[in-house]
Each structure stands twice: as C-alpha cells, then as structure tokens.
Amino acid sequence: MKEKKNLVLLPNFTCHSLRHTFTTRLVEAGVNIKVIQNLCGHSRSDVTLDIYTTVTKELKQAEFDDFQKKLKEKKQEWKNRQEEDA
Asked: How many whole angstroms separate alpha carbon 68 and alpha carbon 62?
C-alpha cells in the first residue's frame, strides 16, 4: 500500500496576512495612500502605513535606484549650466 504524503502547495498563511501583503503591494505600486486607507477601511492613514505595510528589499532598491537617477540628472543639469556660463 502506498503511503499518502500531505503535500503543501502553499505555505501557511491567514486572510489577515494576505491583507498586509495586499496593502504593501498597493503602496509599492504607487497607489495613493488615501485610496489604500479607504480600501482597508481604516479611519487614519498612519494605521495603514505603520501597521499594514512593510518596506520590502525590492521597494528599497527601486527607491534608491530612482534617487541615484535623479542625482545623475541634477549633476548633468549642473554641468550643462557650467558649460553655458563658460
């Protein structure tokens, strides 16, 4: 007789953990915080941000990459201005 294995296709999670993930992903997608607050039914946006969202490694990296890009653009603008003044 074959032994039955209890296969787990998904890790253990709760509906509440899905709520946190959903909120985090909305923030990562750039959805307005007031819209997210309303979707979650929170009376205050600080609850939405402080309790229901997580800063992921991917979000940190994307924000840092965007910051570096802006710095390079500003540096180029400064360099162009210097050349125009010369």
From this structure: 10
Pick from 63, 72, 67: which is nearest to 30 by CA? 63
Provide the residue ranges of all domains of the chain, joining segments of one domain with +.
13-54, 57-86
Q: What is the pLDDT along the chain (86 residues), one digit of tens a residue?
A: 566 677 777 778 888 999 999 999 999 999 999 999 999 999 999 999 999 999 999 999 999 999 999 999 999 999 999 888 87
What is the residue whose two structure tokens read 């979000």? 59
DSSP code of residue 48: H
Do 26 and 39 meet the contact criterion of CB atoms below 8 Å apart?
Answer: yes
pTM for the model stands at: 0.67
The single-letter DSSP state of residue 2 is P
